[in-house]
Fold this protein.
Amino acid sequence: MNDPEWDFTPEHVSKALTKKRLGGMCYFSICGTGETLLSNDVIKLASLLLEEGHIVNITTNGTLTKQIEKLLSASKSNLENLHLSFSFHYIELKKRGLLDVFFENIKRVRNAGCSFVLQLNMYDGYYDYIDEIKQVSIKNVGALPQIALTRKDSKTKNDRKSYEIYTAGSIDKYLEKAREFESPLFECTYKNFNVKRKEFCYAGLYSGVLDLKNGELRQCYMTKPQNIFSDIEKEIIFSPVGKNCPNAYCINSSHFLSFGLIPQLQLPSYSQLRNREEADWYSDKLNKCLSVKLTDGKAMSWVDRAIIDIKNTPQKFRRIISSSIGTNIKSKVYNLLYKR
């Protein structure tokens, strides 16, 4: 319940994230390990990013009316670029008498010209409330919520993370209940759950994971960071992960893969996974912007992809070339790879 501490002010962070420095308009999805809108710095930063011309999504539980009003007021000239993901904690909202507050805030955001998604993280506790959830969703937002697959993280004997669907019952029943909502978001997430990606991935070139507290930018989860806040005049290095993804699977596939970071995967767009077209949750502008595939017409040649993969596995490559070629050739190869 504490306002998170940042190492840099929102003003400084926004200067580190200009379109010029990033190479164009970007989509920022801001979330945290708690209610995102508790932080006034998040509201300030969102308004500054919107002024810069970026698109901003904020994940929220939808109950902080004053904070939502503050966000809309601070961003009033750029609301068409603002998107809110409303986490639908149905049982908690009902128990606390906050369902009306929740849906009034969605209406408030919608009337302001923003786009939104109503998202329910499926778990066993909702099984007895499926019909209620359907009715209240259709009544208030014109469509069923999109469904997120809820996972349970654990560790194996080798101290490696493993992931399971979070259910105490059968997987079949979990899938049956989730599929009552006919959610493309759920189907995409389930299809890619626990599937190790071995294709060439453009994460790091067209996307990243950024820690707003300290400015550490990673190509993706678990990759080595670079700090992009400490010296905002310094050029940001954008380089793809390639075939060297360290993750067990694409943890946020509905975000990253839906933007086309692995071109050969035929997945719906970000917008198609979230918008309920019959209820017009998205504005025309955001629907168009969030339907793009970032790699369309921008795929690297096989030579450049091979070079990236070699650079991303330097220790293995050093052993190979050290045992097979001479010093002069070795130096030339290193110069080719690391001075490009």
